[in-house]
Amino acid sequence: MNFAPDFKTPSSQDESALWFILDNGRLLTKINTNHFCIPNTADLGDLNIGPSNVLYIGSLDGKPCYAGALETGSFSDANFELRNLRTLFGLIPDELIWFGGRANQLIYWSLTHRYCGKCGHETLDKADERAKLCPQCQHVNYPRLSPAVIVAIIKNNQILLARNRRFKLPFYSVLAGFVEPGESLEECVKREIKEEVGITVRNIRYFGSQPWPFPDSLMIAFVADYAAGKVVVDRSEIIEATWFSKNNLPKIPPKISIARQLIDWFSQL
Ligand SMILES: [Zn+2]
Questions:
Q1: Reported pTM
Q2: Which residues neighbour 200 within 8 Å (Cβ) at sequence distance 6 or greater?
Q3: How far is the CA of 120 from the centre of ligand 1 (A)?
Q4: Can you say whether the dihedral through the CA atoms of 173, 175, 177, 183 is positive or negative?
Q5: Cα 131 to averaged position of ligand 1 atoms, centre (Å)
Q6: Cα 126 to middle of ligand 1, angstroms
Q7: What separation in Å is there between the alpha carbon of 124 and the centre of ligand 1?
Q8: Mind listing the pLDDT tens digit of every residue in the chain (269 residues)?
């Protein structure tokens, strides 16, 4: 699939245009003989829903793509379903889920920036870039990103994996945390690890990154070596943290996440 991001709405309508319609993180999908797809302009006409906050997000294999928020909140048509984006992994191509994630991120930003944070006036979409402009005080808001670090800590051929209180299922993963203002990514890695499991690390190196648009994170992954300290979990976020060797890994996150890519990297050392 070839995706070309853009923000300038095409002048002409296209019946084949794809619509990524979001409702609180859920994506509107069409069910075609047991498989899910992204509805096009004609499908939306059948469903009779008027999306709000419509944003052009680019083209996919030449088809225009729009993001919008579901205005009605509900509809009754068995051929359509609102699905949590993450439950669609494995059911539609991964690329479409990431485009849906991009749409989710932009719609979430658009809905939460309808009014100027500085003077309270209603904002407008800026004409020459993806941003919200306040016509009253000229304050500009760009789509929000919340960067977070995610770290694989290695000690003597073992990896530290933890169970987070927020995980719905009992699986173990690498440690992660949001970057704070004024902090470098490396400082964030050290602080998060110290706070969550009480140890220090050294030799922090970059691994890769992944957008995590549920609704607006960017994951920046690192690998680090254990330096000193005894693992003591903070109990507020982390309820258990243990060193695992590659031959006795517990239940770990699904393939799609960079957390899993870090663990798979460790498994192949
Ligand atoms: Zn303003």
A1: 0.89
A2: 190, 193, 194, 227, 228, 229
A3: 6
A4: negative
A5: 13
A6: 13
A7: 11
A8: 899 999 999 988 888 899 999 998 899 999 988 788 999 998 888 787 778 899 999 999 999 999 999 976 567 788 899 999 888 888 898 889 899 999 999 999 999 999 999 999 999 999 999 999 999 999 999 999 999 999 999 999 999 999 998 877 778 999 999 999 999 999 999 999 999 999 999 999 999 999 998 889 999 999 999 999 999 998 888 999 999 999 999 999 888 899 999 999 999 99
